[in-house]
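Bug: token stream looks shifted between consecutive jobs. Job 1:
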Amino acid sequence: MSDLFTCPDYLQPLEQQGCVDPARGWTPTPITLPSGARAPAYLKTHSWGEFVFDFEIARAYQSHGLDYYPKLVCAVPFTPVPGARLLGQNPDQQQQLIEGLIRTAHSARASSAHVLYPLDDEAEQLARAGWIQRDQIRYVWDQRGYRSFDDFLAALSHKRRKNMRSERRQIAQLGFEIEWHSAHDFSANERAQLYALYASTYHARGQTPYLNAACLNDWMQRFGARMPFCVARKDGRIEAMAFYFVDGARLCGRHWGSASDAALLHFELCYYQGIDYAITHGLQHFDAGVQGEHKLLRGFDACTVPSMHWFAHTDFHRALSAHFEHERADVAAHLAMLQRHSAYRSG
């Protein structure tokens, strides 16, 4: 798997354009080795923008008169996409990065260190070093030899296939012109429209957007065709958009926004168009983001992804190890239930 989300072209705009800085509770604290091995890490004074939720742990620390923040997080800000986090050439370098994370946490007087959305082999190495694992369910579409979107539909159960066709037909009747574009294709005015649509999803919830316009524009300049946009226009104006990244053989859906009240437009731009794009461009996987059991009904498969955790306070580490063990069993049981309700035809 390639490392688009940990490459400088992705991380630098977040840090240089002010989305990630100490004033916003993210202090870049990368772990680096003379060999060039590295792990992206941040000292955090809150838990937002991570998507592995530990607010209850923070409250437990507080109830015992302990500070949970700062904590050290090895992750990609605002990007809950699984991938390499310990960027070394071999297990020895990865082990040195793990040791570097713990040393940095100690020197910063951090309560804990966390590696979010690592690869499975990284999680196994962290577990051998005494870190404890949490699991989270996510939904991913996989290419199963489909030559077209109709091929994909044919693999679904009758009910799910009928529902998808109905949803797509309803959107088609609204008269949107839906097109894909490279990030390089847009004018300055259109880029402003795209950012306004992205920001509107946060403003509607009374929140400040994680990304600013400068970061989005920087990404667009750096990634071009590797950052495709699916846009819905009416009368020449962009009414809705979703943007993605192409990471090797994987399509990753990131954010969307809409000025339209068409309820099904989200499914069209964020799921169906993404599946069609992946099939057309020979991609093997489509990761549409965290959460959302409704994805299961639309051809995505449920799976789990780990996160790894180390707590400086030995009693908390021991207690949370037991808690996470029970939590993993609950997640596994829920995953088994979800897999019994796949959108695909049985047999």
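Job 2, same session, no restart:
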Amino acid sequence: MESRAAPGRGQACAAPGCAAASAQRCGGAAMRIGRRAILGTVLAAPALAATDYPTRPVRLVVGYPAGGSTDLVARLLAERLFKAWGQPVTVENRGGAAGTLGADLVAKAAPDGYTLLVGASAEMAIARAVMRAIPYQPEDFAPVALLTEQPFLVLVNAAQPVGSLAELVALARQRPGMLNYASHGTGTANHLLSELLRVETGIAITHIPYRGGGPAMTDLMSGQVQMLLDVIPSALPHLLSGRIRALALCRTTRSATLAGVPTTAEAGFPFLAGSTWSTLVAPARTPEPVLARIGETVQAAVREVLTDAFRERGLEPLGGDAAAARAFIAAEQTKWQRIASRTGVQPE
């Protein structure tokens, strides 16, 4: 009688009596295929999530009341994101504490890409230099993109007998303690820059803090204060009306919107450089594929539409990716800390 050896592992068995063994082997193969399919699904989940994002409304938090420059940037961006994604993108204004209330809300939000912050220099860079305690840290955010820059203008009431920044400094030296300057509040960017001008030139001028830009601009136009540093979107209507005058732009290159206004570097005061700016950030630990999806959409919107929309409103587009935003914010934090130390502005 001929004996048959049992088939080795991996061999097919053609004998009728080996049907059960064949089934066992097929079952094992099916299990292996099933495991691979499950593993593949798990590994593909982040990519699928990024591809599908967003599947529900997204909110852009702004740490200031409606109507300001940061709010304007957020609303222009929200419109473009809605058109790109087909999902509602709402702007939520959470004003208070120099923008830090809104920033804290986003820092503590779920890291899923559905709550984002259109952050400004105050809460993202300056707060650490001028506030004793803030409820979040830089590492609580994942930068997504740079949006705009709004350099400050040195503004004076039109009745002031000066036509340049050098003439303003000379006037202040002639009248020590008699000129006042307004700010948007103690510890704000325009307060720090104005103090830097005072310290570096040795002039004696008096700080008058206001609760926001509107009241400060009103008193500049009426002559209650003689000087104010403010951004182009806020100043432009009043410059056109002739009620105020721009002496210099606080950066190294001129603005296309006000090409006739010299820079502080051209005026002989290169140290006086600063701006407010806007950037898009998400909560830390937001999945990288989701951050990439948001970043790509924002970059396309800035490149295709928003650059012109920003410039039409006196905003300077920056248009940098996540890496550029991270480096920019870190550099700004260092700069404002240095200015606060130089001017002696103490944390409150």
